[in-house]
Fold this sequence. Notes:
This protein is mainly beta.
Amino acid sequence: MKLIDITMSLSSGTPNWPGDTPFHYEVAWPMEESGSVNVGKIEASTHIGTHIDAPFHYDNKGKKTDELELNRYFSKAVVVDCTGLSEITSEHIQFDEKGVTAVLFKTAAWTNRDEFPEKIPVLNESVPAYLKGKGINLIGVDLPSVDHLESKTLPVHRALYEQDINILEGIVLDEVEEGHYQLIALPLKIKGGDGSPVRAVLVSV
C-alpha cells in the first residue's frame, strides 16, 4: 500500500484568501514554563490550505462541518488531468465510474503555492449535474476555489450544492497521475463550522 500526501503544509507562509485570517502557530506554553511539555496555539481561517467547504459556508441553512457524512471523505476517487484548461466541461471528464464517488481535478494552475493565485480555471456550471448522474458526491480541486476568485454569487458552488456534491479545495496533485485511488480527507468535527482544514491522502488501489 502506498500513501500519497496531497495536503498543503500549514505555516505563516501559507497564502490565505485576501482579507481572511492567516495561519499562525506558536508554542504558547513552552516546556520551560510548564515544567514538562510544549503546548502550541493555532489561529487560522477554516478555509486555508487544503480544506473542505461545508454547505453552511455558502448557505445559512446548509449542513455544518460536524453534520457532514464522513463516508464522502473516505471514498473511491478518480484523478482527472485537466492541465492547461481554462474551463472544465463534461467532455473533459472521462472515467470508469464503477464504485467511484469522488472526482479530483488536476489543473496544475496554482504554480506557486507561496502566493495566492490571481486567476484559476473553473468548472462549467453544467458539470455538477453530469457528475451527479455518474454517482459522484464529492469533487476536489488543486485550487483555492471552484469558482472564479472574484465571484460573489458562487455559481459553481451553488450548482454543486443543488446536486448534493461536496467540495474539497487546495489539494496538491502535482506528482499524482490520472487514475483510481482511495481518498482519505476527513474534516475536523467543528460544531457549527463552515469548513475545516484536512490532511488529504490518496492510497494507490
